[in-house]
Design a protein that fits this description.
It is built from five helices and no strands. The protein has about 100 residues and is mostly helical. It has one domain. The protein starts with 7 loop residues before the first helix and ends with a helix.
Length: about 100
Amino acid sequence: MSRRWNKLWIGLVIGTLLPAIAFFLVYYIGYGANNTFVDFIRQTFNIMMLTKILSLCVLPNLAVFYFFLNREFWYATRGIILATMLCTVGIFIINFMF
């Protein structure tokens, strides 16, 4: 893999999209046939599972983090860390504000 992947914004984009894709997969696999996406959000929010599911959806960032770390793509690794921290702040806001 070339060094063109070693950019902060690439790590940030991957680190932001991966949890979103994981969250959509959780919805689609677990609830997709029975509920709409909005109903899924409401249902998980009402039973206080939304932040727990969101927290688990950030875990795929760990695999990408180690992949970039082993390739010594330091800037992309920083982007993954930044995206994970932004997701964590968002989860805290959802957890404590609502």
